[in-house]
# Entry
Amino acid sequence: MQLAASVFVAVTPVLVLTYIVNQPWFWQFAPDWLRDYFVDVPWVGLTVGLLALMAAWFGGELFILRQVRLLSDAAKRLGTGDMSSRTGLHNSPGELGQLAEVFDDMAESLQQRIKERERANAEVQKLAAFAQLNPNPAMEFAADGNLIYFNEAALKLAHSVGKNHPRDVLPPGIGEIVHDCLQTGRDKLRLETEPGDRTFSWSFHPVLPSNIVHCYIEDTTQRLNLEAQLRQSQKMESVGQLAAGVAHDFNNMLTIIQGHSSSLLGRLTLPEEISDPIQAIYFAAERAASLTRQLLMFSRKNIMQLKPLDLRETASRLTKMLRLLIGENITLEFQPPAELPLIIGDNGMIEQVLMNLSVNARDAMPRGGRLTIALETVRLDETYIETHPEAHVGDFVRLRVRDTGLGMSATTLAHIFEPFFTTKEIGKGTGLGLATVYGIVKQHDGWLEVASEPNQGTTFDLFFPAGKEMAAAVKEQSTPTTPVTGGTETILIVEDEPLLREMARTILQNCGYQILEASSGKDALDVWNRHAGHINLLLTDMVMPEGISGAELAERLLLQKPDLKVLFTSGYTTGEISAEVLVKTHAHFLQKPYTQAAVAKAVRDCLDNNVVDTVVVV
# Structure
């Protein structure tokens, strides 16, 4: 329409001129030259043609070609990815204006869709990054059970068990698992596999709209180890409390037996037909006392007398006796290092550990073999702890006891530290040997590791915290060899067991001491009020009736007489000994059961202020 209008406007003057020329009055009044010109030259046709051509060009340029170029340029920019490209003819009239408006609307819609797709792609990438960078292993399975996706954590999990690809650690029957999840629409949780010494827990979750199954894996090895360790600790604690209670009463009876038998054996004029049975009684009591010591060590209710120890010297002193113990058909090899840090420990307990492990090794080698005791310093880091849940970071002295015996199965290994568990014949083992070792090592803030296979021998690794000083810097104090002597000092004996109190009184009276007695803490306070100025030493049991313990009694009396000597005695302790009291008073401790010589020496050492090892209650 615009083109037609422009042509009409351009042709209108020509039409008017043609009309005028064709009128009679034009030819009547027109000059001759003008009439001749219009007659000779086809001016009218030429003019009409030119004006029509100009009108067509002008109209096409103004109303068609310019808009077409704008549309073309906008389409080209849109094709190169410029989503903001527009024609600029949105308000133009006519068909081309309408076409431009449609084009601009289309470009706007396309731009919005691309923005939405970019946002969707960003969300997809975010979700993909969440799965890929997730520290927990994740996998995706197609409906046929094929693994179609896994993240970096899943690959690391496979590498941690020596596999090259996550598909190598998949549970057996993975196709059936995926099929069941998609068929039922239900999750499958806590499916466990055990590749090597690790435990993996698998959870499968069907995604029904996509017909796929998502899978998440958790390495539960450490958690299961900690749970097993906790169960073992609770079991050992409960049995230990029972053992400690039995040992306490048993020790009181053994103290009476050993005290009186040792007193009788000390009489030189005793007939042989009487001394032999008494000696048998004494040795039987000594064996029973050894059993109760093991019970107390296992239950961790015993008193530790700590001092800096060079484990090389402890083990070296024991090797001669161990060679006699294990027999000639077993070779004992001791491998001490040139240097070794000190540990803080109880020498008697460490010797008990070596004895128990050596006896176990001997019984595991009935046809002979080799027993190796080795010491070395080790430094443990976080990597080691990941696979050894009881370990700690730091420097430790490792005591290794290795034999070439029968070894143990995994089932036996799971129970070796349980009290009264034994694989020996009835009457040949108490089942307390390794339980005692376990308790002693724990008391020293250490831990044990065991490696064994049937017919491949057994290796026990015991770890003790290493001190800062090297063993070479400490010299072992010499043991005094002077005979035990008595005295004339006054001693207050506080013991709730009448027979035990009577025995202690008899032994100490025979040594020349003046004796005062009390059956409880309350009675002891009454005796003290009457004889306070004459009492030089308090010999008291730790656990007594009527609400006043031995430690509390000592604290009360020390307030009145700071130079009072204190000797504690007990078959075990329940935490009654105050560390502060021990430090302030330099109190001594005498473990039940004790012999005549032991109690006499302990009393004399306490009265003479002889230095004793540090006493620690655990």
Observations:
- The two ends are 110 Å apart (CA to CA).
- The chain is about 50% helix and 20% strand.
